[in-house]
């Protein structure tokens, strides 16, 4: 008799309530559930109107999302009838639910996966407390009311403990009294909050890590009432295997800068390339949410925390790719590239800022002028300006290294049967990071830059043209600087010929 999937059997017939279902992780989670658990019940998705679109209209757009392409190879669009939009917002009292919708959830839901959060490192305390802490409290209150709740899965972040260089799978002491923090947000205006923010955050890097840390305690407070589990992903990146290798809709982290590098507009990147960069593919995260939920429901008591991470199991360093990145950019170039791609890592922020003036801002001004002349929208200078202004907030994340130990995750992996290990894989020990980043780049090319495989031939021809243009541009710059030196010194071009190779060497350092 063929061994059956225990995880799939557990979720069959269960109704889900999912927050953050329209985000990167949420979309991948919904796709995974619909594709691999065909007997699942309803998936209630907490949604709010966006850009004037009602939630029913937002839901109608789901079948057109590329994440569902594989699902629709074997299923009709009727599969989306399992998705039930519920109007609400984690940032509002009672999740912004109507009494009718709340009664439906209380009566029918069996599994809660709370993924919604504000991820903006620039936000002040007010929105992050209202969404990340109070939103989690509201979700937990709903869980207390649900009649037949089997498990609650909370999506946290490994960086809630980023004030530690090494962290373990446990809940650390709260950095501040949560009631005090909530009271301050309710009674103080933003200016006053901004003034006292450093004293409140203490050694936390930003309001995101601070509030997500306190949110974990909201879950911990309910762990004696119903099965709960916390999964802490690190930096979530494109899919490794499913639904399609390389699928992504996120521009965060390496996906964003490879997107810009392929366009030719991101040419330098501040990076400590010898440090471990803790990346984890989104499909591994989704699998771990489902497996952790199954295991918590089976245990029925206690609260287990899982690091969904790679730093202590299969560490990645950018030195692995340093000499392959540009090869990859030219093997799979973009038809929409605006400059010849060339990405180099720089070891400090001050060096990045110096080089960015020459390789980012000057070309951005030129290209924005060309866009204006051709009727396009100039965006490059503003893009680089935004990056410039955000570097101070990101510096510690860029140049620090963290190690997130994951013995609980490894133990969880060992509990899986052979079918579950294949269907809900969470073991990353056999990932080949070099091959994976080629997959990620191809995913960025297709899903973020929106270029199909059929454009590759034309893209490679353009890449050759851009190389010629880049060489001519460099020759022109060298000639103009050579001429300027000759004029200033009063020497002839021949007499000052020594300046040409010197200028070339200086430009190569930028």
What does this structure look like?
The chain has 510 residues and is α/β, with parallel strands linked by helices. The chain folds into 2 domains: 6-247 and 280-316 and 402-429, NAD(P)-binding Rossmann-like Domain (Rossmann fold, 3-Layer(aba) Sandwich); 455-509. Helix content is 49%, strand content 10%. The chain has 19 helices and 13 strands. A 7-stranded parallel beta sheet has the order 3-2-1-4-5-7-11, with helices on both faces. The protein has a two-stranded parallel ribbon with strand order 6-13. The mean pLDDT is 91.
Annotated CATH topology of the largest domain: Rossmann fold
Q: Percent helix among the residues?
A: 40-55%
Report the strand count: 13
What spatial order of strands do you see in the largest sheet? 3-2-1-4-5-7-11
**In the residues, how many domains can be counted?**
2
State the name of the first-level CATH class of the largest domain. Answer: Alpha Beta
Q: Structural class of the secondary elements?
A: alpha/beta
Overall shape: it is globular
CATH architecture name of the largest domain: 3-Layer(aba) Sandwich
**Average pLDDT number:** 91
For the record, give the distance between the C-alpha atoms at the N and C termini, rounded to a whole number: 65 Å
Determine the CATH superfamily of the largest domain: NAD(P)-binding Rossmann-like Domain
How much strand content do the residues show? 5-15%
Residue windows where pLDDT falls under 50 for at least 5 positions: none
């Amino acid at each position: 008799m063929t061994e059956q999937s225990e995880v799939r059997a557990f979720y069959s017939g269960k109704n889900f309530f999912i927050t953050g279902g329209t985000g990167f992780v949420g979309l991948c989670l919904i796709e995974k559930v619909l594709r691999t658990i065909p007997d699942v019940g309803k998936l209630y998705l907490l949604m709010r109107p966006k850009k004037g679109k009602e939630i029913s209209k937002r839901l109608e757009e789901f079948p057109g999302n590329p994440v569902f392409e594989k699902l629709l190879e074997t299923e009709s669009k009727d599969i989306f009838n399992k998705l039930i939009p519920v109007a609400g917002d984690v940032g509002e009292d009672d999740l912004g639910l109507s009494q009718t919708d709340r009664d439906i959830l209380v009566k029918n839901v069996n599994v809660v996966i709370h993924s919604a959060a504000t991820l903006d490192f620039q936000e002040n305390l007010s929105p992050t407390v209202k969404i990340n802490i109070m939103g989690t409290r509201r979700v937990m209150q709903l869980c207390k009311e649900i009649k037949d709740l089997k498990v609650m899965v909370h999506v946290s972040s490994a960086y809630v403990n980023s004030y530690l260089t090494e962290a373990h799978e446990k809940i650390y002491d709260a950095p501040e009294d949560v009631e005090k923090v909530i009271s301050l947000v309710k009674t103080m205006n933003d200016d006053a909050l901004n003034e006292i923010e450093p004293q409140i955050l203490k050694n936390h890097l930003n309001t995101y890590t601070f509030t997500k840390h306190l949110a974990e305690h909201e879950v911990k407070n309910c762990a004696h009432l119903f099965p709960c589990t916390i999964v802490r992903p690190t930096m979530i990146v494109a899919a490794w295997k499913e639904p399609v290798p390389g699928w992504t809709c996120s521009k965060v982290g390496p996906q964003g800068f490879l997107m810009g590098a392929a366009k030719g507009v991101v040419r330098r990147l501040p990076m400590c390339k010898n440090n471990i960069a803790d990346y984890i593919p989104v499909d591994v995260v989704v699998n771990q949410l489902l497996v952790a939920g199954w295991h918590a429901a089976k245990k029925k008591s206690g609260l287990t925390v899982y690091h969904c991470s790679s730093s202590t199991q299969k560490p990645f360093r950018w030195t692995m790719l340093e000499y392959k990145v540009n090869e990859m950019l030219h093997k799979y170039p973009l038809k929409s590239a605006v400059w010849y791609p060339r990405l180099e890592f720089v070891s400090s922020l001050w060096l990045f800022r110096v080089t960015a003036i020459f390789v980012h801002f000057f070309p951005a001004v030129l290209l924005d002028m060309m866009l204006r002349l051709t009727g396009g929208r100039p965006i490059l200078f503003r893009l680089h300006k935004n990056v410039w202004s955000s570097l101070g907030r990101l510096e510690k994340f860029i140049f620090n290294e963290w190690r997130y130990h994951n013995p609980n995750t490894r133990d969880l992996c060992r509990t899986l049967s052979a079918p579950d290990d294949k269907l809900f894989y969470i073991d990353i020990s056999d990932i080949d990071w070099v091959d994976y980043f080629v997959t990620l780049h191809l995913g960025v090319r297709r899903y973020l830059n929106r270029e199909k495989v059929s454009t590759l031939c034309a893209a490679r021809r353009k890449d050759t043209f851009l190389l010629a243009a880049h060489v001519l541009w460099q020759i022109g710059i060298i000639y103009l600087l050579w001429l300027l030196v000759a004029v200033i010194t009063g020497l002839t071009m021949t007499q000052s010929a020594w300046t040409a190779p010197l200028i070339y060497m200086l430009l190569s350092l930028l």
